[in-house]
Fold these 4 entries.
Entry 1:
Amino acid sequence: MMAAKEEDKMAVAGDGCCLRPFSCEQGLLSRPDGSAAFLQGDTSVLAGLYGPAEVKGSKELPDRAALEVLLRPKVGLPGVVERSREQLLRQTCEAVVLGALHPRTAITLVLQVMNDAGSLLSCCLNAACMGLLDAGLPLSSLFCGVTCALDANGAIVLDPTTRQEQEARAVLTFAIDSAERKVLMATTKGSCSVEEMQQCLAAAQRAADTIFQFYRDSVRRRYSKS
Amino acid sequence: FRTVEPLEYYRRFLKENCRPDGRELGEFRATTVNIGSITTADGSALVKLGNTTVICGVKAELAAPAADSANKGYIVPNVELPSLCSTRFRSGPPGEEAQAVSQFIADVIENSQMIAKEDLCIANGKLAWVLYCDIICLDYDGNILDASTFALLAALKNVQLPSVTLNEETGLSEVNLKQKNPLTIRKHPVATSFAIFDDTLLIVDPTAEEEDLATGTVTIVTDDEGRLCSVHKPGGSPLTGAKLQDCITRAITRHKEVKKLIDKVIKSIKPK
């Protein structure tokens, strides 16, 4: 599989916040059916996808594919935080993957955190989506992850670094789908008012446009080479 | 028909804007709270949301605070979904759902700042309280998140901590069991869960059957001032911003009802 590398610096004009430069590499691992590495600034996550494959008896679902997500942190053993993140990722992927086309099979998504420099969950989401694309699984829509941080003044910072996340009053992560820019997944840390949440959501939806454009360019570049 | 085609059965009800158990789409099940039932725990509460029964016990212990936050105590929530409560849970190490709910409760405590960890500190750098909050589900009939947060809130309101003094010479702590103080609870977070059906319909407080048929769930945690402590939407069908806003408004109304219930119960046990 040829690997396609892309460097893009995206700026979202208007509210003065921009996403960090991100890049993606697909098809870099030989064993998994699909693999992708997604880098957002210094945060990088490697995703490997196996499926649709043989499923063990108890996990078999008669009408759809059984999706399993494994998230491995950079150091240490996976703990409760990883489990809850796995659940978020799994249910997000289940909503887009057309599992009904592959009943009684298992799709396994393994994510390895290579480096965590802020916005980890959205990087995982983006890596997962690129991995699903690389594996060629049938999807109803694409999705992307965007993290917003609200600092002490109420200003929105998109794609925050670790430092910005720690200093922020609230950090919100959204998974936006590509079909109608609706919210697939939302999770918040810290408290915020309802208006602030709606503003963050609007900013995330705007940023999602640039990310989806990046997906397009990335896939186009990859297939035009081969 | 219900067992053979559950989704069709439900759709027929949803078309008439009601549910098989007779509730409206926006109606909660009967909520009952029982405080102080466990005498061996420092604080306890039993919450019943329809058939879902959750009990929370809080035990307070003494420990040395962490090196980097010398003036902060600890709150350790743990949610258990034993095989007693439902056939879907097996005995053994906690499954994914139990861990995810535990993490959710820990996030709610952290986000809402309901108890300032500085209040739990007794002597800077030497002694602090650790509150072990054990939430056990006795009967799982859906909406475990709401019931757990409610049980936790009620149990913490019930907690009475004995006063502790640190003896300077010996370095030992002296616990005075006769003199007890309640915890200062700053915020009262209340969770409201919704289930999404067929990408459009939102129903409040789903039962276990409804959760299985639903295509997604949303949980909103609000506090006293109408601020959002947590928006928890673990995947599932996509929602527009407007629908999310509807959920939030419903959650704020629910918060008022729950707060009234808690205040009533606390007042009823006050004369001891």
Entry 2:
Amino acid sequence: MSVRTLPLLFLNLGGEMLYILDQRLRAQNIPGDKARKVLNDIISTMFNRKFMEELFKPQELYSKKALRTVYDRLAHASIMRLNQASMDKLYDLMTMAFKYQVLLCPRPKDVLLVTFNHLDAIKGFIQDSPTLLHQVDETFQQLTEIYGGFSAGEFQLIRQTLLIFFQDLHIRVSIFLKDKVQNSNGRFVLPVSGPLPWGTKVPGLIRTFNNKGEEVRKVEFKHGGSYVAAPKEGSFELYGDRVLKLGTNMYSVNRPVETHMSGASENLAAQTQESIAPNPLAKEELNLLARLIGGMEIKKPSGPEPGFRLNLFTTDEEEEQAALTRPEELFYEVINIQATQDQQTNEELARIMGEFEILDQPRRSASKGDDLLAMMDELQLC
Amino acid sequence: MFRRERSIPLRGSAAALCNNLSVLQLPVRNLTHFGVVHGPSAQLLSAAPEGVPLAQRQLQAKEGAGVSPPLITQVHWCVLPFRVLLVLTSHRGIQMYESDGSVMVYWHALDAGDASLVQAVFARGIAASGHFICVGMWSGQVLVFDIPAKGPNIVLSEELAGHQTPVTDIATEPAQGQDGVADVVTADDSGLLCVWQSGPEFKLLTRIPGFGVPCPSVQLWRGTIAAGYGNGQVRLYEASTGTLHVQIDAHARAICALDLAPELLSAAEDTFVHIWKLSRSPEGGYIEVEHCHGECVPDTQVCGARFCDPSGSSFAVTGYDLAEILRFSSM
């Protein structure tokens, strides 16, 4: 579909990830300076110039597996650690939140306002870091340069591409259920009232014209909803009132993040289709992934700073339980590539590895290509 | 008044595309065929009158180079004078099958060149006109294929230039035979409508400019063009002159599907399906529209809607993420 969707997908999912991590860091009483460092490290990795360059190239969307791998890496860009169950839950929440935002966008173009809402909030997390602020502002500018001139048709294609990516995901999120924006069957509520998209008139009028273009008749009809015209258009400037609330932070210390695993996923056939992707596809995707991740500059921890584990659940027991009872159809498979015999692939991986700095203890391995593959494997185990 | 009938289950949910439901009525065999796009596959199924599903088949988009499997953009039955073909458009090309989807009779690969590096490349918009099948392109071109009465000897007969932005939908009606009478309408992402007369060489009769919003769905019937727009409006034009006759503020979100048979059906992402009665006023001769019925499909972003019988007394609806075809019939 649209080849301009990845930046929007990545930035919005990243924004949701930061909202959730921020809430959990505070709920778990992590000291302020440590918490700030975690968020700073992640944001700095996200907005790294080389990474952004790769991200903004026109390209097809990655598979869900591949994208999940990117966020695994991103979440571990600092001293914070997440167990598999917590990482799964984090990813569930991120994806359902953005799916909700895309679906509820009044106009396809409003997905850009949602992105700007996320960026505005991200800037709020890094007020004390002028270099980082500048990086985010640069990304803002890039977004405006690329998407500012897009037509309504191009945004409609982006919207369709995003919705196809999120198709068949019906994980129930407590905060959505409580706010009555999601039904107990996992589907989002689509209200038939409220403000209209900018540029849409209130439904209910039929106007008839004659051959000279003069209006000859005006009739009203009952359209069934209860809409009002939009008060004003959201701002697409660097600073401004976005008007739209979608994409702003819905979590606070008092609103815990929980998910229910929707038991029987409705379209198992659709989901197994994804996980049995043939190997050639996986190889090419690994190349793209490696290029993208290669642009992430992960900082080594300075000094004897100890790491800590963040839990997305209220207790450790809950986290263990969640890992054991996760329905099979909701397993996220992180890319697990068998060591390929492909010489070209290994060379390319080796080149990218040279741009990497691995956080953990160095492994003793024969080739640099093996390091990357081993790292990918390790992500699956953590 | 319409009542909800028994739904027909789908193997896979419907994708968030426009015009995502094709219906082939076979009254002689007491059957109705339905076609819905899921994503990389499309599902065909046939049902008996009460909506009892009888047979189903899944078709895949033909593979090609690329990171992810190609996505289908539309599936549509084309009724020609001597045969019915099923056409599938995707990001790789155009696939044509016998009407039950059992045999592929023709494959046309998209010639993207370097375009695929910077923009989405796909075919979209399918309609039959006489013995031609017209298919739209991301580039704005419309390909015209000449279809023989039987067999796979399908030939690309013409490439129509009229649009600069991706084609969204194509509508046709049987040719009147007289010169200058429109029988094909093509629509695009900018809202532009091109009105043509089919033939060995298609002739562009008139253009109806857009107004900044896409026109995802268009219909043509008895010289009247019905166009649905991204801002929820439905507009009716005189096909021969391009004159605007009716403007309806019909929906609160983008329109995704229209059908015309003889009533007008409009469906949009606002969860509503509306039915309108069209008539010609006795004086003036211009088109009049009356709202007949509105149906809300709760919490469903509708993506396809079609009448299921020639009198318009029943219709079917598909929605994003919904793994069933909803059916309604008048009481």
Entry 3:
Amino acid sequence: MAICTFYTVQSLNSISTPTNTHLGFHQKQLLFYSTSKKSSRRQSTTATITCSAENKTVVIGLAADSGCGKSTFMRRLTSVFGGAAEPPKGGNPDSNTLISDMTTVICLDDYHSLDRTGRKKKGVTALDPRANNFDLMYEQVKALKSGIAVEKPIYNHVTGLLDPPELTKPPKILVIEGLHPMYDERVRDLLDFSIYLDISNEVKFAWKIQRDMAERGHSLESIKASIEARKPDFDAYIDPQKQYADAVIEVLPTQLIPDDNEGKVLRVRLIMKEGVKYFNPVYLFDEGSTIGWIPCGRKLTCSYPGIKFSYSPDTYYGNEVSVLEMDGQFDRLDELIYVESHLSNISTKFYGEVTQQMLKHADFPGSNNGTGLFQTIVGLKIRDLYEQLIASKVGAPLEATRS
Amino acid sequence: MASLITASLIQTRSGSVDGLKASGGWMGKEKAKVVGVKAATTMGGGGGGRGGAKYKGTQMREKKLTKMIEEKVKEAKQVCEGDERSDECKVAWDEVEEVSQAKAHLRLKLLHKQDPLESFCQDNPDTDECLIYED
């Protein structure tokens, strides 16, 4: 992959240096120099083409409240691009960063301006913007995007301290994950694509119970109290980022089971913004129409409570969106294939790719419902966006001007 | 809603195996992985190959996080007795969340046999932290 910029300089047999320098790895310069041999008043033209490979990094923002790097979404996303993401080798074992061939995932907690003690003193939670250094976040994401490595701080979640920084090199795809990827406008403008994971209160409660009930210190009350206490800051600072996201994955309790309280079966909505460059929303049957679909019937037998899809255009915080929704669970492989074959614009490279990705990670949470399905699809859409972005930069024609 | 969830989980409190199976997301066929989880929670970190801590340093970290959760929950309850809506109360529960997340994060890593000290211990096998924790 090479990104080339083209300068023309008109001069008499001389070559002047380009006014911009490109920072990044693998720089090559090609000089074309032609002069007219006839004596004439015409000047010779020098065209200088500077090619920098890996000059631009694609930046994806993911807003989630589940802590960094362990989120299933992150693992599915890096898997779509190939390989598993791992912590940097030989560095701080408490690093939050994950690196794979193509992607680097940065945890935005690393930009805390206040450590645990500092936050306690000031009386601010980690959700509060006052606990985060957005200037540094902006500078470093901007640098990485331009192909410059940075010394990024590490926030140690075990000790609650800020550890010495780690060298972070610009990857092909940079994912910034955490509570505030879209909070600061400057950072927002650096994002090529953004996702917000919106978990409803009931589901959040159910998931935190699953996560924490086995811990000695916790009880139903403590889990509930923790969610309640964080809610005001969450609603004030985190939730409003939804309006800026290109895609929102909303997770709600099912509507298929009347009075369901167990939160096992989920209703998941993929809310996709219209008009985003290089992003064509997924649809069912026909774009822009409204459709409800129950795949279970004669061709496909599903067990209770079955599967229900819907697709429709809508508005979301003033934006035109398309919403694809799945309620229920997959029980068998053939259900998944059947559903996949009826979805359009899923950016797969071959038939059954979504199913294959889901099966690859059958042990991940959400593998049998809309969360896994939509996370996988968003991963494929991001791959598609990435490839289009890169192609658009290389595709610019390189021609020397005529003298 | 809370009471029904309690009912379905109380029976499984001793091991989060069934809790996870019941969660919205596991294809019930993955029994092998489920055994790993049980090992991690009931054995409290013993046995490297079964989802427990491989190195002493990690085992110590696990214990530390468990203790911190207990302490910080106690602290939060105390702090919030005065005023539930005070900043101190919010911060106290936020700390509980932070440490709970960290513990869950570690648990998940160990479940996937990714001891966070793996890389460090390859390079520094003789440190105290890198003693291999045997059953």
Entry 4:
Amino acid sequence: MHDSHARFHSPFSFRNFNLTSLLGRRNREKRKKVQCPRFTESARNSQFLFYYRSFDLSIRMIRFILLQNRQGKTRLAKYYVPLEDSEKHKVEYEVHRLVVNRDPKFTNFVEFRTHKVIYRRYAGLFFSLCVDITDNELAYLECIHLFVEILDHFFSNVCELDLVFNFHKVYLILDEFILAGELQETSKKAIIERMGELEKLE
Amino acid sequence: MALSGMRGLSVFISDIRNCPNKDQERLRVDKELGNIRTRFKNEKGLTPYEKKKYVWKMLYIYMLGYDVDFGHMEAVSLISAPKYPEKQVGYIVTSSLLNENHDFLRLAINTVRNDIIGRNETFQCLALTMVGNIGGREFAESLAADVQKLLISSSCRPLVRKKAALCLLRLYRKNPDVVNIDGWVDRMAQLLDERDIGVLTSSMSLLVALVSNNHEAYWSCLPKCVKVLERLARNQDIPQEYTYYGIPSPWLQVKAMRALQYFPTIEDPNCRRSLFEVLQRILMGTDVVKNVNKNNAAHAVLFEALALVMHLDAEKEMMSQCVALLGKFIAVREPNIRYLGLENMTRMLMVTDVQDSIKRHQAQIITSLKDPDISIRRRALDLLYGMCDISNAKDIVEELLQYLSTADFAMREELSLKAAILAEKFAPDLSWYVDVILQLIDKAGDFVSDDIWFRVVQFVTNNEDLQPYAAAKAREYLDKPAIHETMVKVSAYLLGEFSHLLARRPGCSPKEIFIIIHEKLPTVSTSTIPILLSTYAKILMHTQPPDPELQNQIWAIFNKYESCIDAEIQQRAVEYFALSRKGAAVMDILAEMPKFPERQSALIKKAEVAEVDSADQSAIKLRAQQQTSNALVVTDQHSANGPPPTVPAVGPLTLVKVPSTSGNAEHTSEGQALTQPNGTLTKIDPQTPSEDLLGDLLGPLAIEGPPGAAVQPQQNAVSEVGGVPSAVDGAAIVPVGEYSNSVQPIGNINERFYALCLKDSGVLYEDPYIQIGIKAEWRAQHGHLVLFLGNKNTSPLDSVQALVLPPAHLKMELSLVPETIPPRAQVQCPLEVLNLRPSRDVAVLDFSYKFGECEASPSSSSEQISSAYISVCRRVLSSMEISFRPPLKLQEVVRGVRPLPLAEMANLFNSFRLMICPGLDPNPNNLVASTTFYSESTRAMLCLIRIETDPADRTQLRMTVASGDPMLTFELKEFMKEQLVSIPTAPHGPTAPPTPPVAQVAQPTSPVKALTDPGAMLAAEWSFEDFGLVTRKKSVNGSFLVLVMDGQSLASFRPNNKAEPNK
């Protein structure tokens, strides 16, 4: 019954997708769960409003990082600019809509309001960074990949389920990787070692 | 990987995942939230572990998109936990749930500071991370010094220092003053010598922020950046872990080059040379490789190098190398690289000398305009727009137009706007421009704003040779079966004006033109009908000899619209009908539109170069100058001896030029002009517009309460002429200059001001040379005021300056006032007002002009500057809160009131837009009024006022004011007091004759019955309760019935009332 429900809502078969390794390695059998699509708030306001009046546009930094799956479920959200909750929901909804249907052959950059979203898809997960339009797109694109490599290393062959059940660990890793909207550490080794230290403390 | 070791959390996540649908998920979440809430309530039984678990659950729920509006306190309190696991949860959850604007964060500042200055490195890291992610201004002020210490401390591990660098960056962004430049420059330079790449990356980010604000101070960091770049580019001393697919930290390379772009130039030749060596190596040595990540990383560095080269304005050779590279990129298949190629080429346009080489790629760029990816299409459009000039405008605009028919919705608006701008900017000839815009309207009418078609009309009106062409084109488009409404507007306008030029062509007789335009009438909206009516009137006028059949048809239409609900249509129908019966005189009244003032700066320059001294000629020149002020000028170009009537426009397109022929006086009086007997000045008749305005204001509000109902949301615009610095009562003259001939204002300024308090338009100030009129229109808290500056003389007024000094509560924006007002001309200056909050302060208009005397005494160039101070303020009223206690409700006994019959007072109130609600108070000596006050801070706020008068002593009264906002209540009360104490001698304009004594005939119950709208009734009911009248509501068949009780309850109210006069 669950299966038919899921199929009804999505043309893709995604029953196993959150077990798919993000970096495309062998699948591991974890528990099978049917993911139900999430219906976010209606797209009442899809207009590109000037939303970010609260911060200076000349500042180049990461505005927010989102990890969403194809259904739009947020797996991680980190905002480096002060947004109200309702705005956050709206941003998450809009970014998901913006990236989810893009052809893999398209660019990894989409204009979003007055900013740019750099996104990359790994299996069923979208990693999106929102940056200034004049920022270096490719550098952020590779920054996403580095983050995924770190996650992959830490969870040894990471898949979406790892991120779901260990979301607090993902936050920890992210805090070692990016701080204040800027890249903090680009050495995989340094971050993994640091995570080891922190694990011991718990 | 162990599932976090928190079973409860894992179980919860599994539960959520097992929910088959959204509703069940919500149920599960609500259950959990309820559970957490109860657990948090009796906090004593909570172990740190449990607390931690619940806070994680909260974060998870929050991440799913549910509102978590409690437990913030618990999350923040975990920060002060002594042990790492709890503290860590506290920090992470706090920085995810809260943002810098939350008050809760303040509670944590002390703990955070203790963690930062404490010895525990892990705690330091946690605290720095949270502050770096969500620290606000207060954090900046209290923590910046400690963070700086950590950053430069030699005893700290790199781990802490890199966090400190980014934390400081955050604090600096919040408050740049926290970094003391003098002390920090050397430290910053030292930081760039750092060996550890992690610390260096963070420090470089900090440097980018610092230099972007002030590059001069950090000059000494420049060579260090070059050194860092060299070290990376040569891969010297870079640990393996910091190379990414073989490239030494591409991110640090990008950052270093970013920092360098903030320095204007590099002067040191050695430094410059070594930098260019590195850049050259990057430009030449980057090849396309198969590995995506390596390729991306290498190109990230390459594009940053390109940007730096462009910034440094390198030698020509290097530049052409860059253009060649970009030309290669825009042709590759890899979408990201192509996108960046287009983007950087657009930036490249800023650099001189490369345009021509970019133009060579035009065909390639146009292909990208058709790319399936919208990101690429946008870049291509931007680039095409940027590279367009006279030589290629035709090609590019035609390409854009062609693309417009297939472009997707998301891009059409931008496309059409860009096409329109390019067409205007680079039009090789005007007929081409008209073609382009008409095509634009045809293909994407929805996106063609009024400005664009206004512009077409201006061009056509001003260029006689263009007129037949444009009219013919418009006629062609009308043949199409379905055309956009904008097309109807523009073609109707053009054909009305110029169709007589086509009369000999087939299908262009006045009758045929009329028929084809009239066919469109049923399909258009009310905004277009007025234009069509004007067209009909013009067609009628051009039909000479008159065609009785056509005349009857058109008159029938005018007749039909004479009773139209839309005021604009109605007015036009009535006026055109009357005008068209004037016979031959119509020829003059409906003559062709005069030329519009030119906007082209080139023309203005020409006019300025030519030495013009006669008043008439300079008027033309000055008219050109006024263009920038977007002011509408109505000039009368005839000599002063004839009656110079000018007709203020009803709309921008109905400007009617009235030549000074005989018999037009009656026409103008039918219009809106009021010709003064001595023919000196044309003045705006305040009556008609103000009535219109009132109608406009009431129109959209009718739903809130039927006319005469207790709650009639109203707004009030009050203009005030304030005091003058010289403290001369009523005299608004400040003589300046050697000749102290002062200008005497005509009429009492204060009186004028008070009169303006009561209506929306009128004369604000007048002296022998100038008259300033004002007209206000309010929509909620937004006010649109127009200042009418009229020069009463036959020579121009120079050096006109107007400055509005708004009080704190009003946001005002005065559009540019033209420097000169041509003779006998009137200039309109729109003034936008936004009411932020209630206040009684008034705005001041500081106005000055220079008047060079006319030919009578050419030798004496006496200058007179007079200043009038206008103030514009507004307020409004009424109430909505359930309970009004001080300060929401204020009561005061006002003495020394000018005795006023109650009916007159009611009238006065009504003119303040305080609607008297008869019958709410059974005591005939009392007045109850309500209104809605609009401002940014209060939004729409209902206000109630009650005046209790004493029939025995009319000089005092008790006033009760209530509203939902204490400040509003106070300000309103004070305002009313001012107004009642110093009621001007002539409080009513000519339009406001004493109305029937509404309040006196007030019956306790009958007007209440008039309340049919439940909302209004409810509001009225609250106001009853609030004002001491007991009301009861009964539900009868679902509708409310309001009963006003008397007896006991009223008795308890009346003694108060009576007690007053004894005080």
